[in-house]
Every structure is written in structure tokens, then in C-alpha cells.
Amino acid sequence: MSRYLIQNLHAMPTVAGSANSIRIQGDVITAIGEDLPLEDGETAIDGRHCVAYPGFVNTHHHLAQSVLKGIPEGRQVPLGEWLAQVPYRYWPKITPDDMYVAAKVGFYELLRSGVATCADQHYLYHAGTSPELEDAVWQAAEELGIRFVLCRGATTTTGSHRGMQGNRIQPETLDLAISRMEASRQRYHDGSDLSMRRLVVAPTSLVHTSPRDDLLAFGEFAKAHGLKRHTHLLEVSYDEQVAQTQHGMSAVDYADSCGWLGEDVWFAHLVKADRPAIDKLARSGTRIAHCPTSNSRLGSGIAPVIDMAKAGMKITLGVDGSASSEGGSMLQEMNFAWLLHRTQHGADATSPEGVMGWATENGADLLGFKTGKLALGYGADIVLYRLDSPRLAGIHQSEWAPVMAGEPSEIHMSFVNGKPVVQGGRVLGVDEQQLTQDAMNVVQRLKSLVNS
Ligand SMILES: [Zn+2]
């Protein structure tokens, strides 16, 4: 069992009282205190000039998009056109080898920005999908040591989405999607508190990619196996229009009628949630993956998370896929979330403490992990940020400097489940030069395919 003692920390602002040391034994935190003594068999980590936070929890991503950044046709257009021009246009062309590179790039970006846990909505499934396309993501996660939740997307109808129709994507049948989900569950899912691999049932969109009966069936499958549920909702007002036209009710009422509200459900975006929608979501315990960078990049709007939090909804944060959020940095997302809502609600709308809770405790609680807190018996997901740089040295309340100043910030060391994953700003297990070359090769191949 590996054992570490992190000593001499400058600050641990999420921990009450005075403490400057954290003891890790195996995968958990076993002591937090002032000047804890080094014990036999422990490796000392010098945390001088560092602030320690719980490792961040990213609750919405599309790792495949890590090789689809900044595509010109998708740069100046809103969601509907962007979906048609970017993800739907490219995803039938992505091979398992491409996916492995994309996942590695995405995990690299997350780890180097302080993430310990990533929930990825992987939706590259169609009638002819190779299981290796999914295996590649699990493999990359395991190699880099990130805690990984695969939100298994599914499209069982081309429905109302022109992006799917235009790219002639052949959907899975419901039976095929569920049988493949069951195969993944048996192979990968571990429901324990400190599991490194979880499966979530995540049809790609609530309104557009599966009919009501299929949503009901996905919900039953999830409940039968204790799996959580996730999808996109109300990123733009089109969801509301389709729900009203096709079902004669609001999008959130439609979700309710499909059994898709509850504490086991979270939706990405909810930018267009109105007052009745917020109240209903809050009452049911449904949660949000708030993705402010992506919402800004696509001009979708600002999700009403301040009102949601007041109504009792637990806010979590996601960086979203890198085709609509090119940075892929959770620290940047936190910095932006801290700033953005002040433009609407004033200077006391958000705080670094509050945003930290969204990015750690709330995310871990949503996904069902005993992580997201620096506390005894919790998983040792810990990130140490250096504060001794010219850029951060002028900040008086230095324990919040990385959140207030955003990128670039340097991680001294980061642990997931008690194992080092970043050291001296470098993501362990990644040859940066090789990964850069691999990603460039994938981009070249995809470019030549779509242009031929
Ligand atoms: Zn998304």
C-alpha cells in the first residue's frame, strides 16, 4: 500500500480550522492536521508555497471532440448549425485509434488543470459501431489514472435533428443499444464509493435522439442496475419548441412524463430553463452540469444557475467537449463561472468558495463518489497548486489565487485515489511530444477525409 504525507502546506481553504498536512494511505485520506510527523514507510511531499484543494470533478465532456477543436465551419455559428457542421459531420469518421488519441488529449487537459474525475458523454454509437471505439476511452482513462465515468450516449431515432439526417447516421435500435450497454456494464462498471470506472445511461438528447418509449426503457435499465442518468436539455430554446409542438408540454414536463427527473438524473446546460422549469427541477432533486464556456462560445446564453442554487438545485461544473470549448481546462471553467454570473447578478453573486463547491463536493455527490472533500476516509483526490509565481504573488487572499486568476497555473502535484497523476506540472504517463504529433496526425487524416 502506498503512503504519503503532504507537509508544510500554505493553505487548505476547504478544511475548517488550522492544518498544514494530509496523510494518504492507499486510496484514502487518513489524517489531516497541523505538522503531522512523518511515519515509517511514508513518502514526504513538500507542500511549501502550495494550496491544496480536493481534485476537481468535471461532470460533462465529449472527449472525442478533443481532435475537433476550432473547425472553421463551426466557429461563428449557433448550436444547431454547429452540431451539423462539427460533431455529426466528423463522428462517423472517427476510428478507435483516433478516439484513443482524442481521449488522451482530453484527459491530459483535465489532469493538468486539477481534475481527478471526468464524466464523459460518449455518443459515437450508431448501428455499425465498433465496441473498440468505447474500449479506447476506458483504456486511456486507466493509463492516465483519472477517475472515469462513461456516460453512454445513444441515438435510437434520427428524429428531428438535421445534423443526423444530413450526415446519414444510421441509429442503433433500442435492443442493440441496451444490449451493448449491458455488455459495457458487465465489463467496466464498478459501483463502489471509490470506484475508478462507472457507467451512466445517457441517451444523447432528451428531446431529439430517442422517442418516449425508448427513454422509459433506458430509465428502467438504469434503475434495474443502479446506474445514474444523464443527457442534454434546454441548451437552446429549440428543445422547448419541439417539446411544445410534438408533445404539447414544456421540455421539463416532457422529461417528467418520460420518468427523466430525479436525484439520479443530471442535465447538461439548461440554459433556457424558466421559473416553472427551475422549480420543478429543484423539487425533483434533478441536477445540472453547468458549462459556461461552451454556452458562451456557441452564443447559447447564460444558464440561470444563481436562481437554481437559490431554489435548492445542486450546481456542478463541466468543461463540455472541446469543439465548443477549446481550452478543456476545469480551472479556467471555474474562473469563468466565478466571473460570468456577476455580470448579471452583481458582485456578490458568486465566490471562489462557492464555485469550488460546484467543482468538487457537488460533482462528487452527483456521481456518487466518496470524494470531493479533503476529509478523513474520503478518497485521496488532491491537487496542490503552486502559489510562488510572480503572477500569483500579488494576490492577498492567496488560498484562492488559482481560482481568481485562472490559467496558467502550475500544479505541484496531484493525486487520484492516492496515486500521483501530475508532478511538477507534468501529466504522468504522457509523452507530450508524442501526443502532440499523434493529435496532429489525427487532425490531418480527418481533414483529408472530409475534404475528399
Ligand atoms: Zn454536451
From TrEMBL:
GO terms for molecular function: hydrolase activity, acting on carbon-nitrogen (but not peptide) bonds. The keyword Hydrolase applies. Keywords: Hydrolase. InterPro entries: Amidohydro-rel, Metal-dep_hydrolase_composite, Metal_Hydrolase, MTA/SAH_deaminase. Residues 52-421 form the Amidohydrolase-related domain. Pfam families: Amidohydro_1. Belongs to the metallo-dependent hydrolases superfamily. ATZ/TRZ family. This is Cytosine/adenosine deaminase-related metal-dependent hydrolase. It comes from Marinomonas communis. The lineage of its organism: Bacteria, Pseudomonadati, Pseudomonadota, Gammaproteobacteria, Oceanospirillales.
